């Protein structure tokens, strides 16, 4: 991998603690595997609780100076970090595609998208306004100030190895917090490369710490049970999110949770079908379907069902599976064996319950972790794939007759991250957008991700918002100061 990089020094194989590349206490190493070949591409530390503890100590020590720094000074450092990320986007994209398996174009796109959060929050950090509240007493004045929460533990997933980090680290650092990052086991290299660039940007030692490992639980325990850590920001499964939230209860830590979704994609009979097909292709097959806002349940009005399915089948034919570093490839492998087995299980279950395979439907002839882009039609409501995140390149279709019926079906899930619908009726567009129980809704649009808008879920999909002017508020405390004797 180092030979493929313009700057091999971006490949870091130790923890970043207090500004120093540090070996873990244990000599045990954790292999990083390229999912498209199954080969080991690097070995990183197998950190344990004491390594996390050392990183928290470093972050805690760095907090007073970092939080006292003027926001404009922090912004200058963060913008330098952002510039370095963008300058190194090709190398960072290569590292990302290698360890994660997404096509190189998507990988570079993620790096640049990730950098946009650093830039956005560098600016927002200057606008963390307080308030002056009219006092009920003549001799008092009431002032509200916002202060950084303190040391933040960041726990991030493998599906966006770069952007899920910057979207948490950006607002944390801009607000004046220091962080300990624990990236996912599958994708530590992108996190360590971001650490290298943070150092080069001049972000002071201890402000941004990275601890990598093959076993997340001891690190998660160390972060959640340490009273010096004041907040956990997590993106990942609902199961682990609940566990971390319960652990945080012990010391009443703040939590931001971006958890699983079960996004619906509704095509009404008045929709522009070509636009709906293009929207579905984009949101379903990005990252081979491995995103928390991937369309998971596709409801098409009975009147346009056959036509939509036919157009979709044609569009599916344009996908190319293969080596993620080949620029012609649009579909990489799934992340690991369990992911492939899950997709296979969900497809078999749907077919056993009466669904028909319109395209794909089995592991890809390329072998390894590749699965065929798949369309299933007439998927019955009891199929397991309606109730759990597929996280793979599978489109399940079902038909519906009325707006009320489809809204009820869509809302019938414990999740509430994103939903999408296509309709040209302005009244319906407002109505349905308001009735869908999710933190985000795409109306005639499936591309929601941008640093300027609040990303997050309701119900079991999470707590808090990332990006936008709202995102930074998750990293500050509100303090009320009462001045008397005036
Ligand atoms: P996914 O299904 O995306 O792999 P996970 O929730 O398992 O979702 O993983 C998301 C992140 O949570 C990863 O960084 C993973 O290492 C971490 N994680 C998993 N289990 C724990 C745990 N018990 N404590 C802390 N972090 C964990």
Automatic annotation (TrEMBL):
The active site is at residue 258. InterPro entries: Ald_DH/histidinol_DH, Ald_DH_C, Ald_DH_CS_GLU, Ald_DH_N, Aldehyde_DH_dom, Aldehyde_DH_Superfamily, Succ_semiAld_DH. Residues 21-481 form the Aldehyde dehydrogenase domain. CDD domains: ALDH_F5_SSADH_GabD. GO terms for biological process: gamma-aminobutyric acid catabolic process. GO terms for molecular function: succinate-semialdehyde dehydrogenase (NAD+) activity. Pfam families: Aldedh. Keywords: Oxidoreductase. It comes from the Bacteria. Belongs to the aldehyde dehydrogenase family. This is NAD-dependent succinate-semialdehyde dehydrogenase. It comes from Noviherbaspirillum denitrificans. The gene is gabD.
């Amino acid at each position: 991998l180092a030979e493929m990089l313009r700057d091999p020094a971006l490949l870091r194989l130790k923890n970043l603690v207090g500004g120093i590349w540090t070996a873990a206490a244990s000599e045990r190493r954790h292999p990083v595997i390229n999912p498209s070949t199954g080969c080991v591409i690097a070995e990183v530390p197998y950190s344990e609780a004491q390594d996390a503890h050392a990183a928290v100590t470093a972050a805690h020590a760095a907090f007073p100076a970092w939080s006292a720094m003027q926001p404009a000074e922090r912004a200058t450092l963060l913008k330098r970090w952002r510039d370095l990320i963008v300058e190194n986007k090709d190398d960072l994209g290569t590292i990302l595609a290698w360890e994660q398996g997404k096509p190189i174009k998507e990988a570079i796109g993620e790096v640049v998208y990730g950098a946009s959060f650093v830039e956005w929050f560098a600016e927002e950090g200057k606008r963390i306004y307080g308030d002056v509240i009219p006092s009920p007493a003549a001799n008092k004045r009431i002032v509200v100030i916002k202060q950084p929460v303190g040391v933040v533990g960041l726990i991030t997933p493998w599906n966006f190895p770069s952007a899920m980090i910057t979207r948490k680290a950006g607002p944390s650092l801009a607000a004046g917090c220091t962080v300990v990052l624990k990236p996912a086991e599958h994708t530590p290299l992108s996190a360590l490369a971001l650490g290298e660039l943070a150092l080069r940007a001049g972000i002071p030692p201890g402000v941004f710490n990275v601890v990598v490992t093959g076993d997340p639980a001891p690190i998660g325990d160390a972060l959640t049970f340490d009273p010096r850590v004041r907040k956990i920001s997590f993106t990942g499964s609902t199961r682990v999110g609940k566990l971390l939230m319960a652990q945080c209860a012990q010391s009443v830590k703040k939590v931001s949770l971006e958890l699983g979704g079960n996004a619906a994609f509704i095509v009404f009979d008045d929709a522009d079908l070509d636009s709906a097909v293009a929207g579905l292709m984009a949101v379903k097959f990005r990252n081979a379907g491995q995103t928390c806002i991937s369309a998971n349940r596709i409801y098409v009005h009975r009147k346009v069902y056959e036509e939509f399915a036919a157009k979709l089948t044609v569009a599916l034919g344009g996908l190319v599976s293969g080596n993620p570093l080949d620029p012609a490839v649009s579909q990489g492998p799934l992340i690991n064996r369990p992911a492939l087995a899950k997709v296979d299980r969900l497809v078999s279950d749907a077919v056993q319950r009466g669904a028909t395979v319109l395209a794909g439907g089995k592991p890809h002839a390329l072998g390894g972790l590749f699965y065929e882009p798949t369309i299933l039609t007439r998927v019955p409501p009891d199929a397991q794939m309606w109730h759990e995140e597929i996280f793979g390149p599978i489109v399940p279709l079902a038909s519906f007759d009325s707006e009320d019926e489809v809204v009820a079906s869509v809302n019938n899930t414990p999740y509430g991250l994103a939903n999408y619908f296509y309709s040209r009726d302005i009244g319906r567009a407002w109505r349905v957008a308001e009735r869908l129980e999710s933190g985000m809704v795409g109306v005639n649009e499936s591309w929601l991700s941008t640093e300027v808008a609040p990303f997050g879920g309701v119900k079991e999909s999470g707590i808090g918002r990332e990006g936008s002017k709202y995102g930074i508020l998750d990293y500050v405390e509100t303090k009320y100061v009462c001045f008397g004797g005036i």
